[in-house]
Design a protein that fits this description.
It comes from Mucilaginibacter pineti. Keywords: DNA-binding. InterPro entries: Homeodomain-like_sf (IPR009057), HTH-type_Tx_Regulator (IPR050624), HTH_TetR (IPR001647). This protein is mostly helical and 196 residues long. The protein has eleven helices and no strands. Helix 1 packs across helix 6 and helix 4 runs parallel beside helix 7.
């Protein structure tokens, strides 16, 4: 039996993410991955049972890393504005450090892997955000609302800006580059929309 190499395993994960972002899940195969890594297909099976096993394991591992990044320095006892600001800062920093991950997770959200994706992400994050939401509603900082409505107003603008930045253009096709000024001006509008 051949031995595992940590460096090779990391290369496999990185290339898998890149290929899924580039070609979508439909265009992703173990053969393409082996070729991109310049290794034999058999080597992939040292690390993963099959394509599904690879995708699920990479997803769960990356979600844990993303969860850690998103809750860094975040305290559910923070005021609404302070807590939301920390969330935006953490999410923005994560997107800058791992630009392909948002696109990778978007591929998964609209696939048969959605259940694994969502269940892996709801542990610590769900508890912390639930407590935060309870606190800010209890203190009268924002109105009670379904979590999906809150998320749509609180975070969709950030993710749309990140998408425009990644694409390098706005919806009208004009060049677009994210700046701190655009980020925090948008954040201020979101806070105004949600605060009582």
């Amino acid at each position: 039996m051949r031995s595992r190499s940590i460096e090779k395993e990391e290369l496999v994960k990185q290339k898998a993410i890149e290929l899924i972002v580039k070609d979508g899940l439909e265009g992703f195969s173990m053969n393409k991955l082996a070729k991109a890594c310049q290794i034999s297909v058999g080597t992939l099976y040292i690390y993963y049972k099959d394509r599904d096993d690879l995708i699920i394991k990479v997803t769960v591992e990356e979600l844990k890393l993303m969860e850690e990044a998103i809750v860094k320095d975040f305290d559910p006892e923070m005021s609404f504005e302070q807590g939301l600001r920390q969330q935006w800062e953490n999410r923005y920093r994560y997107a800058l450090e791992k630009p392909n991950m948002y696109l990778f997770f978007e591929q998964l959200r609209s696939s048969s892997y959605q259940e694994e994706y969502l269940s892996a992400f709801m542990s610590t994050f769900k508890v912390i955000m639930g407590k935060f939401m309870h606190n800010v509603i209890e203190r009268g900082e924002i109105e009670a609302m379904p979590f999906e409505a809150y998320w749509s107003v609180a975070f969709a603008p950030l993710y749309n800006l990140l998408r425009f930045d990644k694409e390098g253009k706005s919806m009208g096709g004009m060049p677009f580059k994210m700046t701190d000024e655009i980020l925090w001006k948008t954040f201020n509008m979101v806070v105004k929309a949600l605060k009582k």
